Amino acid sequence: MMKMERNTVKDLKNMMISAPDEKIGELVKQQWLTFDPNHGLGDLEKMVVKYAALTGKKPVEKLKTAMLLMCGDHGIAKYGVSAFPPEVTIQMINGYIGGSAGANVMARHANADIFITDVGVNADLTNLSQVINCKVAMGTEDFTHGQAMTREQAVEAIKAGMKVANDCIDQGYNLLATAEMGIGNTTSTAAMASAILDLPPELTVGRGSGINDERMAIKRGVVAAGLKINAPDPNDALDVLCKVGGYDHAGLAGMILAGAQRGIPSMVDGVNATAAALIAYGINPACADYMFCSHLSEEISHGKMLEMLNLHPIVDAGMRLGEGTGASLAIVILQMALDVYNQADLKGAYDA
Where does the secretion signal sit in this chain (predicted)? Predict the structure, then answer.
């Protein structure tokens, strides 16, 4: 088993990810300049040029977005690190199925199809036909007493995310978007950020679901304990993931890797998704080229995480909900930018 796991990790590290097509990007940029010679639309131009370079062809007229909502419970949620109990994970999943959650509303505005995926929910969801069953385990272990998952489980969860992403790409989706649900996941995210960025919990633990000062102290203590007992290796992304991460993180990391391998960009949501992006980047750095950063989260570690990935947020709206909400907002802007490229004739519309 260990030999198989090592070979799989080696395959992930060595998977072929093509560099962006700079010739296509330059062509699209020159075409853009014919109607916007003064760069009056700012970052919209950069978004369209990047999308073209990543896909290797003229920008599509319409995005077809698959939003992969990776769900997994976290063993440390029992300590009260969130404003909500662990049982809320399954309640939220039922809301997504019914289309009534705020994330559903925003995804509809973005014309994004949500694929609810169980990677590690602490409940049997096999009776829910609307949920893709990729369960690796019934939630992670309590990482204050040992690692959250085994390396084999981490790889299995990454591969699950890759499979769902590849299935979506095979169906013609030309953009992937991250989304996640798992009570306690910002605690795991903070621990991962501390390990990778070499920062103390005081600089990575945020208020997440809106916790008070008392819960904040507990959350910091949980992160500190997990880091102390597990000593995750910052130079080994898989080690960080399996020691203090979550199955939702692993699934999203796999999604990003699969998209990059297939030449399909990923719209990365907030702080939890960015932690997953850091894991994907640590496994295969070339995948960072295929990421769009949707927004700047209010969670305190997010800016530092984006710096490591050299990503710049499309939106800064004070958001920190996660669940793909920031990604939906940014997708609307990306679609608008593509519409400008494909439909507008703004030459002469700017003052000299």
Answer: none
CA pair distance 172, 136, nearest whole angstrom: 27
pLDDT at 8 over 80: no
Which residues pair with residue 252 across a beta bridge? none
Asked whether 209 and 83 are in contact (CB, 8 A), the reply is yes
- Of 178, 62, 183, nearest to 115 (Cα)? 178
Q: How much is the pLDDT for 14?
A: 87
pTM beyond 0.85, yes or no: yes
pLDDT in tens, 254-294: 999 999 999 999 999 999 999 999 999 999 999 999 999 99
> Distance between CA atoms of 55 and 206, rounded to whole angstroms?
35
Smallest Cα–Cα separation from 325: which of 118, 102, 113, 165? 102
The reply to whether CATH 1.10.287 applies to domain 2-59 is no
Q: Which residue among 45, 156, 180, 323 is the active-site one? A: 323
Domains of the chain, by residue range, sit at 2-59, 65-333
Q: How far is CA 308 from the centre of its chain?
A: 15
pLDDT of residue 3: 43
Q: What angle do CA 185, 68, 112 make, to 5 degrees?
A: 125
CA distance 156 to 162: 10
- In tens, the pLDDT along 187-220 reads 999 999 999 999 999 999 999 988 999 999 999 9
Spatial CA neighbour of 190 closest among 177, 173, 203, 181: 203
Give the C-alpha separation, 176 to 169, whole Å: 8
What does CATH list as the number for 65-333?
Answer: 3.40.50.10210
323 is catalytic: yes
The H or E element that residue 295 is part of is: strand 291-295
Instruction: Report the distance separating Cα 71 and Cα 349, nearest Å.
Output: 47
